[in-house]
Amino acid sequence: MDKTEFGIVGLGVMGKSLSLNMAEKGFKISVYNRSGGDEVQVVSDFIKENQKGYTILGFTDLQEFVMSLKQPRKILLMVKAGDVVDRVIEQLIPLLSKEDIIIDGGNSYFKDTQKRFEALKDSLIHFIGCGISGGKEGARKGPSIMPGGSMGSYKKVANILESIAAKDNDGKPCCVYVGDDGAGHFIKMVHNGIEYAEMQLLAELYALMSKTMDNEAIAKVFFNWSQGDLSGYLIEITIDILKKKEGKSYLLDVILDSAGNKGTGNWSSKEALDLGIPASLMVSAVFARYLSSFKQERVQLSAQLGLKRDITQKLDIGILERAYRFARIINHHQGFQLIAEASKNYGWQINFPEIARIWTNGCIIKSQFMEDIATYFKTTPSLLSNKHIFEILKSSEASCLDALQYALANRIPSDGFWTAYNYWIGMTTAQLPANLIQAQRDYFGAHTYKRKDKPLGLSFHSNWKTS
Ligand code: 6PG
Fold first, then answer.
1. Which of 135, 175, 251, 390 is deepest in the core (most CB within 10 A)?
2. Ligand 1, residues at Cβ distance < 6 Å
3. Element (H, E) at 145
4. pTM over 0.85
5. Protein residue with least CA distance to atom 1, ligand 1
6. Strands 249-250 and 245-246, how do they pair?
7. Is 195 in the active site?
8. Confidence of residue 122 (pLDDT cuts 50, 70, 90)
9. Dihedral sign, CA of 15, 19, 21, 27?
């Protein structure tokens, strides 16, 4: 039998969808899934269900799978991030030859990817850590793909990855070589950090509106916004979600208000802390999810507090719209600032306009704003340094404050809007009280401070005791 061009390990939802996407583009592929426990039938069922003219060979034996591939072999791992990736790599290595290529397409932690990249260098096996966004539908119809590793390795698989990727408005693939070692997974991680905050903002808007409006009415507001510059995948799915009914009631209303997570928002936030970048929206979105998970305590404390407030103030939808635009800009600005710092820190030379471009289609945070960002980055290094963006923030600051005042008056938690507002007023305040922090640090720890009236290269320490 002829050898195939590409192999996929792991037939979960994403693995299956990517396999079909590839097969549909005319690639001859092999797929592998283990056959233990309740996975006995996974491969045979997949092959049975997908025989319409595709060349897909199915395996439950890893060695046979590897042998079915043309050399240099190209193998995409779509397995659970973490130890499983290491275990599969360990099993594959003895079966592979030099110049073969392993691509990890899961949501792996970028520091694990850096380690794997280094470890595999000596064995002359290429390793590509590849972020893939778009969920099941994106994977099937065209995801956004963020590959990292060596440029040489990428070139060997570029053809396949670019064929299955989504296309931007100019028909270019939403797949580009991102940078060395873990850069691809880093970019996917920050994508998710931005995603967490975008989801949180929509959830807060839903909370603000739901006090006085039903789901259908909220969906209408989102629909109107989605006709212009606020359009995007997340607002579109939110409209569908708000409208979905089970019998006579809305499905959303019976979903437990306790948000889960798989770790990427947490990693992005930790990285922001490590690199000293105040990417506060993603951090607050992670904390908002964590707080939501304390459901029992919230129910108990809420009963204990026993507050019942009638909404008196009128909710102004125009104010919410401007506040939403404002907070989204801050969120995207922070995400790209984090990427900029990481690029410097890890020596990745990340191309901003290209990252924004490959996020204009296929991925979860695709939006009209992302298309605008891709254009802005061609001429400005950061969103806040773009005059047009600055003017929007300046003119919508008051609306964010109004939305927050409504939220506070009605005890509606609004971490995202609150954080965006504070970031903006902090960043546009020339004198912050950090002089006091410096003095306190110097007082108890002799950490020294700089003076505004002396060269910044000099450090000072004082004896602060006044008596
Ligand atoms: C994507 C998504 C995808 C997944 C995340 C989110 O870009 O396609 O981000 O990767 O939905 O894992 O997961 P959590 O919200 O569970 O952390």
1. 175
2. 107, 133-135, 191-192, 195, 260-262, 264-265, 363-364
3. strand 144-148
4. yes
5. 133
6. antiparallel
7. yes
8. confident
9. positive
